[in-house]
From TrEMBL:
Coiled-coil region: 6-33
Keyword annotations of the record: Coiled coil
One Gene Ontology cellular component: nucleus
Organism field: Syrrhaptes paradoxus (Pallas's sandgrouse)
Membrane-spanning ranges: none
Protein name: CENPP protein
A GO biological-process term: CENP-A containing chromatin assembly
InterPro entries: CENP-P
PANTHER family: CENTROMERE PROTEIN P
Length: 190
């Protein structure tokens, strides 16, 4: 066999092995995401879809109900954004680990509140026992464009250390509003 033909075959084998590796990784990722739902939830979803498509009239009613629910959720979201001033611009969620009674998800959020933008990254650990589910936030990281404000830096550091997102989201609108007032005041005097 000619060495150039042998080299072509080796290159082809190498590219096929790389493609197999890539497809295996994609398959594993999709398997991890699909294990996020229990077998019971999957069966319930299948039965729900079957019921939805059994009759056209019932399907139209379900579709109109979904539209009403979507409009209601959009109204609620709009109200919350106006009320708090917080607007989320992106959210990414990835399941890192999934076992029978433990789930670890990595979340990445970004958004803004008035004129301040922020980015959050954290892991959500959900543990399930017989009675209830507990959720714990770990590895919280907050990045904000707050300039050189030492008070805000201290607050962010404390929030990251305690993993307390509710305190962060309760305090952020007030802080951002006063930052906006301060900015407008300084612009007025310039």
């Amino acid at each position: 066999m000619d060495s150039s033909i042998l080299h072509v075959y080796e290159d082809e084998i190498q590219s096929l092995e790389e493609e197999i590796q890539l497809l295996a990784e994609k398959y594993e990722e999709s398997q991890q995401e699909s294990t996020f739902f229990s077998d019971e939830e999957i069966l319930m979803s299948i039965k729900s879809f079957q019921r939805e498509f059994q009759g056209e009239s019932k399907g139209h009613e379900c579709l109109s109900d979904l539209k009403v629910q979507l409009e209601s959720l959009q109204t609620d979201l709009s109200f919350l954004m106006k009320f708090t001033g917080i607007q989320f611009t992106s959210h990414c969620k990835k399941t890192v680990e999934k076992t029978r009674n433990r789930t670890v998800q990595k979340h990445r959020l970004s958004g803004n509140c008035h004129s301040l933008s922020f980015q959050l990254e954290f892991q959500l650990l959900e543990m399930q026992n017989k009675e209830n589910v507990t959720a714990v936030i770990t590895d919280l990281s907050i990045v904000m464009e707050s300039g050189e404000d030492s008070d805000m830096s201290k607050f962010v550091s404390s929030t990251e250390a305690h993993g307390n997102l509710s305190t962060f989201f309760r305090s952020l609108p007030c802080y951002a509003e006063w930052c906006e007032h301060r900015r407008c005041t300084f612009l007025h005097f310039k």
